[in-house]
Fold this sequence. Notes:
Blueprint: E1 18-19, H1 40-46, E2 51-56, E3 60-62, E4 70-76, E5 79-84, E6 90-96, E7 101-102, E8 116-119, E9 123-130, H2 131-140, H3 142-168, H4 171-181, E10 192-195, H5 202-209, H6 213-225, E11 229-231, E12 236-239
Antiparallel strand pairs: 1-2, 2-9, 3-8, 4-7, 4-9, 5-6, 5-8, 10-12, 11-12
Amino acid sequence: MDSVALLIVFNHVETPVMSHSNLLNSLELSELPLLNSLSRELLNEVVTKVKVHTFPKNTFIFKPGEKNNEICLLLEGVIKNGIILPDGKELIQHIFKPLDFFGFGSLTGKSVRVHYAKSLSPFCTILTIPCEMVTQLMHQSEQFSKGVIETIAKALYRSEKRLEVLLTADVRTRITFFLEENITSNNAPIPIETLLHEGLTQQDIATMIGATRQTVAMVLNEMRKDDKIDFNRKKIVIKSNQPLRQE
C-alpha cells in the first residue's frame, strides 16, 4: 500500500508545456479571484499581460533558483508545492487546488524562487501574471491591493495552523487535518465527499505530517473501520455524515 494514489488516474498523452494566448479572448478575467475587483479599463490592460499555460502531469511549473517574476493562478488541476532536499527528494509542503494563487515570493522581496511547483493532475492550466503588473495594480486599485494582502494573510494563517497541528497534535489528528484541508471535490451525492489527488502517496502524506508511512496506513485503516472514510488505490472518500474528528 506504499504507493496508494489519492486521485483517479486518467489516461492521457504527455505533451509539452503549451501557452494558450488565444484563450485569453474567451477567458472571463472579471470572474476570477482578485481580478474581479478591477475596473473594465484595468482588466483590458491585464488581458494584454497575462498568459495561460497547460502543463501535463509531473511537469515543473517552476523550480528553485528560477527568476521569481510571475504570480500564478491555478485554473484547473492540482499542484504540489515544496522544497527539493539536498539528496534530490521532494518535500511537499502545500497542495494547491483550482482558483488558488501561488508564487507570491516576489512581493515579499524574493527575486529567486526557493520552492518548486509541480503538476499532479493529468493536465494543469495556469494563468500567470507578471509581478510588476500586480504591483502596478496594487497602486491603481485599493480594493485589489486589499485582496492581495488578504490572500497572502490567509496563506500565512494556513501555514501557521498547519505548523501548530504538526507540533501539537497526534498522528490521527494530523491526518484528519490533512484530509479536511485537501478535499478537492464536493460534487458527489450526499453523504460523501471525495478527496482527489493523483500521484500523491501514503509516503507523501507521511512526509507532510511528520509520520511514517506504516503509521499513516494504520491510521487510515482505523478510520475506515470506524466508518469515517473509505479508500482504494485511486482515491479516498470521506463520509460527510461521519465527522472525522474523534469526540
